[in-house]
């Protein structure tokens, strides 16, 4: 069983009931949960002042040896405020000596990509306390895959989509699309060539998703990748004005314009069911025109 430290560098946890349920579930499974005060802490719309949330990040440099997992409470907004103030030198030195599993998604993507860029630290894009472990009905696949991904030095994912066949390998990276795009031109966006870029988002209409992906294209980032994998994009309602322009139409257009394979349909992101992906690990992707298989290795695992 693991010692799990909670971290809240972004928005205030509105759904306190869900967070409490998540803590109870993890405790019932035999895990110990520390730093629970991060759940109730609040300043304005944030999970504490900038100084308090920055302290959550810096405390990663002095974790107890027993701490296996660092788990984000929720996303929201607030991580971007902290990027300039993070002591990457100190963090990198400590985390390279002993790297816990650091997991979250959404707004937390900004910190995950900054740690990858500045420190070379692999973190996991996956479930969070409130939205996933604290859901009214816990998704069994999400639960099982999380523990598999952080315990096995090599694991495999498969999903269905109708993209043209391809076979590539490279560094797995990405996370929340809006957060990734917001880092373009900054020192916190990884300069990865030959990578497998995996993105997801929520409450973004297909045209906004298209616009962000085109920004990655225009910035020259996509053409340097081996493949683009699209996770879940939910939370929007199309109207009469769209006249048939939906997510599938958007994917078809982008597949024609981009020079890299575009493979949609991975259960990854703001959904009850989500895979867990180590950002910065090595991926081998094989797609036969109907089934995609992604083999993941090179990440650290819990003891």
Automatic annotation (TrEMBL):
TM region(s), chain numbering: none
Protein name: Muramoyltetrapeptide carboxypeptidase
UniProt keyword annotations, A-Z: Carboxypeptidase, Hydrolase, Protease, Serine protease
Domain LD-carboxypeptidase N-terminal as annotated: residue spans: 4-126
Pfam families tied to this protein: Peptidase_S66, Peptidase_S66C
Domain LD-carboxypeptidase C-terminal span(s) in chain numbering: 169-284
Gene: ldcA
Species for this entry: Cedecea colo
UniProt GO MF annotations: muramoyltetrapeptide carboxypeptidase activity
Top-rank lineage group of the source organism: Bacteria
Lineage: Bacteria, Pseudomonadati, Pseudomonadota, Gammaproteobacteria, Enterobacterales
EC number annotated for this UniProt entry: 3.4.17.13
Family: Belongs to the peptidase S66 family.
Gene3D superfamilies registered for this protein in UniProt: Class I glutamine amidotransferase-like, LD-carboxypeptidase A C-terminal domain-like
